[in-house]
Amino acid sequence: MKVVTGVIGNDIHVVANRLIDLSLKARGYEVFNLGVNTYLEEFFDAVIETDADILLISSLNGEAEGWSREVKALKAEYKGLDNLIMMIGGNLTVGTGKAEDIIPKYKNYGFDLVCHQVDLNTGLDMLAEFVKEKSA
Amino acid sequence: MNSHNDKLLIDVGSTYVKVCVESNAPERCHLEQHFRNFNQSILDDLMHKCGHTISAFAKDDVYICSSANGGLSTLIIGLTHTFSLKYATNIAFNSGINIIDTILYQDIASATVPSDLIDVVIIAGGINSKGNAFADDLYHYLQNINYSNIVYVGNEQDAKVAKAQLPELVVLPNIIDNRLHIVEEELKAYLTNLYQQDIMGKEDIKDLYQISSNQIFSTPYIVNQTLPLIDASYSVVNPFILLDIGGATTDIHYSKDLVDENMVTNNEFDRLVFKKLGVYKSRESLIFAAQGNEFVYELLMHLNVTENIFHEQSDKATRILMQLAIFLVLCKMSHYRQTYINLKLSAVNSIVLTGGVTKVLKQEEAEDIISFFYTKILTSQHRPVTIMDTDYAIWTLGSRAQDANHRAK
């Protein structure tokens, strides 16, 4: 399966991005890594150009919260993204917050899988499980 | 070859022709500039004004570049703004093309059909493992367009279908590789060759081969070739931008360090064009653009003139229009206006001005307008160093480099 990934917004956490890239490849995904400082439109455009199945956005500084509010509106402007699996992970809030408050918020923004401060491998296990359920 | 290794360099612009004698003997070097007579062919006009100089040179020693043929008009159809359209646009600009329109493929059903003849249509989109990116709506749309050339630089899987639908289609390697990086060379070579064919097809320019046996290049291409060598002639500090403001268009060449973007290329410098921003042929559209900018009235006040200056035909009016052109170009490239590319203007160390602007404005008049822009639009005290290429050294340097390449081959 094809995955587009990258770090959203003005976030330069390149090490985390590299680890996600390596972990995805180790699990057999074909990865298109847009790197750090990536904007929402670039993510969706990359999905269109690659025909990716999964979009995995990461955030370390928490600014994903601001950007993610635009996800539904922007995604609606594209044709052909209805079956895209949308996942977001990392630190998803500025300051502190509880997962039980954060996860519903992001699901409402349009993400299928939300991993707030979850270990990378656990998050990717969740993705594998989700893909399996979806294709069943 | 003559004893002093003299060369004659000619630049045919939309408004002026420049003729420069380059020689190992400094006393033989000189530059002349003449306003074009549009009632005569370019060659007749040149021979009338500089016939004596031109006839002293063998055809092998005459090098010509031109931006007077208007360049090719291009329509790019791509899948996304960030990748296919952006990459193809970048390649087209760097190939010397001025007129570029783009269509996002998903909006093709509602896209306007251009009424003019398009010189070249470029279709781009998708990495090679993506198939079925384009469907019948593309071919229906293309049936309604009048074009001379069409080239496909999209994913490999759709190439076969596209070729079957459009037998005249030229298929080149995908401009997007499997890592979503840009692949420039083949499309760039194709467009540069088309430009040469376009020159050969235009009688006015074709005539110039009567005085030169060397290939005629586009002026922006020559200028772009010069940029890595520019510090040989000027104390330019990178990153810099070069503004070539002329009679019909304004060309901007910029260091890649000034853009945050997803394009990974081998070029150190890229080019973009504002096609209707000039003080002679594009005077009306320049004034129209100025009137649409909310800061222009403040700028006119700063320059101690009123809006009436737009209706005047005087040296002063030309000077004000040149100053406006600098201001508008900087606005268009800044984050104040979202366009194809936005430059980090607060990081610019040098602004090099070339073209007609250097014959109209004094150094302090150009600096004044750049200061106004940085204060008003960027609210910054930063002041890049302004360099005026008053003797067209950039163009002559580029032409000489072209000559050296030619001889090396």
Outline the structure in words.
With 136 residues, chain A is an alpha/beta fold. Chain A is built from 6 helices and 5 strands. Chain A starts with a strand and ends with a helix. The longest helix of chain B has 19 residues, at 315-333. In chain B, the strands form 3 sheets. A 5-stranded mixed sheet of chain B has the order 3-2-1-4-10, sandwiched between helices. In chain B, helix 7 (219-226) packs across helix 13 (393-408). Chain B contains 13 helices and 15 strands. Chain B is an alpha/beta fold. The chains are: A alpha/beta (136), B alpha/beta (409). Chains A and B meet through helix 2 of A and helix 2 of B.
What keyword list fits this structure?
heterodimer; A: 136 residues; alpha/beta; 5-stranded parallel beta sheet; 46% helix; globular; B: 409 residues; 5-stranded mixed beta sheet; 13 helices
Q: Low-confidence segments of chain A, ≥5 residues, pLDDT <50? A: none
Count of alpha/pi helices of chain A: 6
Could you tell me the mean pLDDT of chain B?
87
Protein chains sharing the most extensive interface: A-B, 16 and 18 residues
Strand content of chain B: 15-25%
In short:
The complex is a heterodimer of chains A (136) and B (409). Chain A has helices at 14-26, 40-50, 64-68, 71-76, 99-109, 120-135; strands spanning 2-7, 30-33, 54-59, 85-90, 113-116.
Write the layout of secondary structure elements.
The complex is a heterodimer of chains A (136) and B (409).
Chain A: E1 2-7, H1 14-26, E2 30-33, H2 40-50, E3 54-59, H3 64-68, H4 71-76, E4 85-90, H5 99-109, E5 113-116, H6 120-135
Parallel strand pairs in A: 1-2, 1-3, 3-4, 4-5
Chain B: E1 7-12, E2 16-22, E3 30-35, H1 42-55, E4 62-66, E5 73-78, H2 81-94, E6 99-104, E7 118-124, H3 136-143, E8 147-152, H4 156-165, E9 170-171, H5 185-201, H6 203-206, E10 217-218, H7 219-226, E11 240-245, E12 250-255, E13 269-274, H8 283-291, H9 296-302, H10 315-333, E14 350-354, H11 357-360, H12 363-376, E15 385-388, H13 393-408
Parallel strand pairs in B: 1-4, 4-10, 5-6, 5-7, 7-8, 8-9, 11-14, 14-15
Antiparallel strand pairs in B: 1-2, 2-3, 11-12, 12-13
Helix pairs in contact in B: 7-13, 8-10, 10-12
